[in-house]
Amino acid sequence: MLVIAVATLLVVSSLSSASPTPLSPSTLPQRRSASVINFQRNTVQADNKVFNAEAARKERLRVKGKYGTINDRVQAASHSTKRALKTVAEPFDIKTKRAGKEGKDPLINVFDSIDVLYYGPLSVGTPPQKTNVDFDTGSSDLVVPMSNCRGGCTGPLINSSKSTTFKGTRTFFSIKYQDESGANGTVATDAVTVAGLTVAKQAFGAVNVEFGGFSGPNAGLLGLGFPDNAVSNSKPFFTNLVESGGLASNLFSFFMSRGGVDGSELCIGCVNSDKFSGDIDYHSIDPSATGGVQLYWNIPLWSFL
Ligand SMILES: *[C@@H]1O[C@H](CO)[C@@H](O)[C@H](O)[C@H]1NC(C)=O
Ligand SMILES: *[C@@H]1O[C@H](CO)[C@@H](O)[C@H](O)[C@H]1NC(C)=O
């Protein structure tokens, strides 16, 4: 079973960074979140394709017993969410995709005791210069390290002088993630391509310093969260693709391998049926944890247990 969250415009599978810590009033983009309620994942996820719902239900009871009560209000919300689900899920069907664009890219799973992040290729400029980014569903900005980087960048770096379509601004860009890593620079626009899909004037943080262990095997980061969480106050890459109206389906999906093995993939405008078996399970996203403003791909846990 593949878990897919459904919104009016956007659909996504599998969150790569949940929001386990309390949100501060000025919500920080989230990434590499570390506090976890310890599900015994091996039983819940019998192999890396099949979700074991019965084991998940048992696990939910075990966690509930260990971490306290789920109050009546939550139970009530659970039931109303379940009722709401059918009506939200029905209008969307993967099989009814339009004639339109879609694209896949293989991702590399960075494994260091845990599956830390998934990164893959991205290109910037005219002609395109290649770099790579950590694909992050918990933040909403594109961060690109530039060739004038004076600290912390591993690269590959993008040289704006070599692009005929690059437009810089004087607007300061500064992002800091929950793990205290971040980057500073200015807001710029240029052509950006991922999985063969191009946004001609994509805004991003053209950064000249990265800190707190921001870059590692990945050079930059592409946030796949919602526009209201963008510190650059500009539209995220996926939002621009959706608004262009050219995608086969307004969704993206990930296949995330475990333990650093090959085969991870990002599919934009598509779901790769070679990567899972069984039916797709749809869940409404719920902004109530962030004051009713949709910042993250939040799914209430009780919605799928
Ligand atoms: C960027 O490209 C320009 C034009 O080709 C070149 O003169 C400059 O040295 C490059 N900058 C860096 C830091 O590589
Ligand atoms: C990044 O910018 C912030 C201001 O938003 C500043 O406090 C911080 O010192 C800067 N970090 C670096 C490494 O330049």
From TrEMBL:
This is Peptidase A1 domain-containing protein. Residues 118-305 form the Peptidase A1 domain. Residues 1-18 form the signal peptide. It comes from Tulasnella calospora MUT 4182. Belongs to the peptidase A1 family. Keywords: Aspartyl protease, Hydrolase, Protease, Signal. One of its GO terms (biological process) is proteolysis. GO terms for molecular function: aspartic-type endopeptidase activity. Gene3D superfamilies: Acid Proteases.
